[in-house]
Write a structure and sequence with these properties.
The chain is mainly β. Helices cover 1% and strands 45% of the residues.
Length: 288
């Protein structure tokens, strides 16, 4: 139907983030290195670029990871970012920011620099720390709150002004895009072997489940169940959201005959089915 050239700059081509088709009926938003691009779905026309040349060291590009348009009718675009400075000292190599833009005219509404303390990974001594700001890989919105996965931490912000409400560090975890927020709870499946349910208001851990392998896929919460494909181990998991108990955990049916036959993609859940693209087949399974 249409093809749109975004840029000829190879530095921009290596940008991070992915477009979400269902966020807006008319427009598509995609994260890049240096900016977020807004395209019209009907013809692919680039409507606007939201520049991300702020709050970074000189000469450093920051990329947006999965920008989200507000679903609450206020026309705000939220752009979580991350950047890397190879020339800086260890504690200053990484950084991240969170921006809120007017999606129509591109005006900046607010901006927040996100930093927190973690245990020093260079020593075994507890209490040593580095001031770091790893990339924000994924965010989710409620009417009043933004929830972000940032490196080894889960952070919440005020949606109106961008102030940090609380952050919680998980030293043995590390998060990618395994985030869902539902009915006052945060669900996060990490690439550090654990899935969590946290209270949205306080950050209190309600339960913690060992999932054994690294999760790098999105999560889905439906009808008191948490669904995800543990892509590090190739198994589909279904957990009870009340207590984290395992309802279902299985590898592909053909795995016992071929260990290279594994689930790969994030898990699509709907209409009583679970769909996954594996290494050797596309699978459709009934919800357990």
């Amino acid at each position: 139907m249409w093809i749109t050239s975004i840029t000829d700059n190879p530095d921009e081509v290596s940008g991070i983030g992915s477009p979400v088709m269902s966020q807006d009926e008319q427009f598509l938003y995609a994260g890049r290195k240096g900016y977020v691009v807004k395209l019209r779905k009907s013809d692919g026309q680039i409507v606007r670029r939201f520049p991300l040349d702020r709050m970074v060291p000189e000469g450093v590009l920051q990329g947006s990871t999965n920008p989200i348009i507000s679903p609450f009718g206020d026309n705000i675009l939220y752009a979580p970012t991350g950047w890397y400075n190879s020339e800086a000292s260890i504690g200053e190599k990484y950084g991240s920011n969170l921006f809120a833009f007017n999606a129509s005219n591109g005006d900046l509404i607010w901006e927040t620099k996100v930093e927190y303390k973690i245990d020093n990974y260079l020593t075994e001594q507890k209490g040593d720390s580095l001031l770091v700001g790893p990339p924000i890989y994924d965010i989710a919105l409620t009417e009043s709150t933004i929830v972000a996965l940032q490196g080894k931490a889960i952070v919440t912000f005020s949606r109106e002004m961008g102030e940090i409400n609380w952050f919680k560090n998980f030293p043995k975890s590390g998060f990618d895009v395994g985030l869902s927020v539902k009915n006052g709870s945060i669900y996060a499946a990490s690439n550090g072997h654990y899935a969590f349910r946290l209270d949205l208001q306080t950050g209190e851990v309600i339960w913690k489940r060992n999932i054994f392998y690294s999760n790098t896929s999105i999560t889905t919460v439906k009808k008191s169940r948490l669904y995800f494909n543990n892509s590090g181990g190739g198994a589909i998991w279904v957990l009870d959201t009340k207590n984290g108990s395992i309802i279902y955990r299985e590898l592909p049916p053909n795995y016992k005959h071929d260990s290279y036959d594994v689930y790969i993609s994030s898990l699509a859940v709907g209409e009583g089915y679970m769909v996954n693209v594996g290494s050797k087949a596309v699978y459709c399974l009934t919800v357990p």
